[in-house]
Write a structure and sequence with these properties.
30% strand; Gyrase A, domain 2; single chain; alpha+beta; four-stranded antiparallel sheet; 91 residues
Amino acid sequence: MDVKILEEEKNRLVFEIHGEGHTLANALRKELWQDKHTTAAGYQMDHPLLGNPKMVVETDGKAPRKAVEEAVSRLQAATEKFRDKVKKEIK
């Protein structure tokens, strides 16, 4: 997976996530909305199967990169917690 920054301003960040699809993009979008400083978070794909998600994040003053980093960290923690629960139940 590669991330390519397409546009960056004080309160706006647009980037593409190469090699990923709707699953990661939608999870990230939903997690970004958990941040009270996020005023817009969404993504689009030119083709549902072949495209790369293009994410748009807008904030009310918080650095958009910081909002994305924090959302990714929360997703990572939730994924690890889920993995641990599954491992425990499968044993």
